[in-house]
Amino acid sequence: MSADNVFLVSGIACLIAAVVGGGLKAFGIEVPALRSLMRQVVLGILGVILVVIGVIHPSGTTDTKIGRPEAGRPATSRPQTVPVPDRAKPTIAGGPITVKVNNYPRIVRAGGGTDISVLATARDGSAIPNARVVFSAGGGAFEETGTTQAMGSTNEKGVYRTKWRTYEAGAYTGNMSYRIGVQVTKEGFDRGRGEIEVPVRVN
Questions:
Q1: Among 65, 109, 118, 158, whose Cα sits 20 to 30 Å from the Cα of 197?
Q2: pTM exceeding the 0.85 threshold for the entire prediction
């Protein structure tokens, strides 16, 4: 029997004792243990108190707030995974193309020509093969086109070579020079530019 039931039963017993004692006294029967009026009153009050205690704390009642998670909440808190947006990718992943232009012979005689080479490299110094190379000269002509424009592609070493010639010697009255511009492009890289000045001597 639980403690709550003990309170309830004891309270009822006290009330019965108080009532029975009073009833017997009305018929002129007195029980020695219950013949005091004060004792009957005390038993009645004590019985009421015990019954109230037993009713307020019924047997088997447990505190649901202890050891039980709140409704609607998980027993354990798990960290939520927050999706991280991808970092913005650069428009040109390969970066700029470095262009180096050389010619040989460096100085050209009027009516003659020179070999021009272009080297295209990435920012880490590696060669860029299959890059598109476009030449534009201020005069003279490239052998493969016969005009001031020419184009081609770099080889596996990132190099492209072409030949440029001056006009015929009789067209010159003095020394001069030509600027030859170069543009190198390839998908995934920023456009690269280079330039060279070719001196032309009459004598």
A1: 158
A2: no
CA pair distance 98, 131, nearest whole angstrom:
12
Indicate if the pLDDT at residue 131 is higher than 90.
yes
Residue 41 has what DSSP assignment? H
In 3D, which of 161, 159, 152, 172 has the Cα closest to residue 112?
A: 172
Cα–Cα dist 179/200, whole Å: 11
Q: What is the pLDDT of residues 32-65, one digit of tens each?
A: 554 566 666 666 677 677 666 766 765 554 444 4
The residue ranking higher by pLDDT, 202 or 17, is: 202
Peptide bond into 105 cis (omega under 30): yes
Phi, psi of 116 (to 5 degrees): -115, 130
Position 29, amino acid: I
Domains in the chain, CATH or no CATH each? 3-56 (no CATH), 98-201 (2.60.40.1930)
